[in-house]
Design brief:
The protein has 180 residues and is an alpha+beta fold. It is built from three helices and six strands.
């Protein structure tokens, strides 16, 4: 009987060793699958980067050529088309006036930031046109973009009167000043 128990014990140990071996083999297979996925992802990323750099090399130079591409606004999500802008360089959303930080200098498309450019003010130009002052919400860069024909007039006006709504002095001083 003791022999049978030993054999049974050996059988059990052998069975648990087989299970342990299977488990390790399964884990090794999973790790190998994960490595393959990571390698595939890395190759795809490298291919995308190679394609991106070759497409960037073929990209139009918007410093000298018209930009007639449509885009989706990163702030409000509306689809923007170049028609009706009154310019060949649509560079901000006519609905919310937000832009995207894509240029280091106008038209070069070399910015690495890609942050949202918030409209913070309106500037009156010498020729009577307005420009919108944008500030990148990520890196803080300031940029001027000419206001276009189809821009939201209410938002443009609200940007223009913003300084009057909060002057750098108490409004009571205006009364005293006018009396003098």
């Amino acid at each position: 009987m003791s022999v049978k128990r030993r054999q049974k014990g050996l059988y059990c140990k052998s069975k648990s060793l087989k299970n342990l071996h299977r488990k390790k083999t399964w884990q090794a297979g999973k790790k190998q699958e994960q490595r393959k996925k990571e390698d595939t992802h890395r190759e795809d990323t490298n291919r995308e980067n190679a394609n991106r750099s070759s497409s960037e090399m073929n990209q139009a130079d918007y410093r000298t050529e018209a930009c007639l591409e449509s885009f989706v606004c990163a702030h409000c999500g509306k689809e923007i088309h170049p028609e009706g802008a009154g310019s060949n360089h649509r560079n901000h959303c006519p609905y919310c006036l937000y832009s995207l930080h894509v240029d280091e200098t106008a038209g070069d498309r070399k910015a690495a930031c890609y942050g949202k450019m918030e409209p913070i003010a309106v500037v009156s130009r010498e020729d009577g046109d307005w420009s919108i002052l944008h500030q990148c919400k990520i890196c803080g860069k300031l940029n001027l973009n000419r206001a276009l024909a189809d821009d939201n007039p209410i938002l443009l006006t609200s940007l223009a009167v913003k300084p009057l709504a909060s002057p750098p002095f108490p409004l009571g001083y205006l009364e005293q000043y006018l009396k003098e």
